[in-house]
Amino acid sequence: MAVRVDFDALMQAHLSRVFGKRDGSRRLIALKEIYAEDASLFEPDATATGYEALSGAVEALYSRLQPSFVFTAAGPAVGHNGVARLHWRAGPRDGPTAVTGTDVAWVENGRIKALYVFVDPAPH
Q1: DSSP assignment of 13-60, as one string?
Q2: Cβ-proximal residues to 14 (8 Å cutoff; 6+ apart), any chain
Q3: Per the domain annotation, does 124 fall within a domain?
Q4: Is 2 among the domain residues?
Q5: Taking a C-beta distance cutoff of 8 angstroms, is the pair 31, 54 a contact?
Q6: Total structural domains in the chain?
């Protein structure tokens, strides 16, 4: 029997509790609740597998961003047949959007097994 998944809740939690947390210990707790143990993250310039490596990838991302930088969903996530997507935007908390993108997740047993991060090109 397949696990029933609320794709929007899962993807919103991924964005707010994993990519939205600068505190590594809180992020690790969220990773263990939201992701499969052997989950992989695929970014344009990096790949990570496992909880510690995923948390490290988020930590590396935050090391390159200003402290006021936040990620927010640009609408609800949608999904079916084990795949979900969420559009997001990021930038200073009280400032303009600096970057947008889409996360696409492969979901198994109600947890993210693989996450593909697509960053939109900057407008010309």
Answers
A1: HIIIIITT---HHHHHHHHHHHEEEEEEEEETTEEEESHHHHHHHHHH
A2: 34, 35, 86, 103, 105, 112, 115
A3: no
A4: no
A5: yes
A6: 1
Q: Domain range holding 54?
A: 7-119
Using the structure block, give the residue that is written with the tokens 């303009």. Answer: 96
* Tokens linked to 84: 């979900």
Quote the DSSP letter at residue 37. E
Cβ-in-10-Å burial (0-12, 13-18, 19+) of 45 comes to exposed
State the Cα torsion 45-50-102-93 to the nearest 10°: -90
Q: Is the pTM of this model over 0.85?
A: yes
Q: Which residues is 47 bridged to in the sheet? A: 42
Cβ–Cβ < 8 Å for 117, 100: no
Q: Please, are residues 102 and 88 in contact by the beta-carbon 8 Å criterion?
A: yes
- 4 in helix, strand or coil? coil
Going residue by residue through the chain, which has 124 residues, state the pLDDT in tens, using 9 for 90 and above.
567 899 999 999 999 999 998 899 999 999 999 999 999 999 999 999 999 999 999 999 989 888 889 999 999 999 999 999 999 999 998 889 999 999 999 999 999 999 999 999 987 6
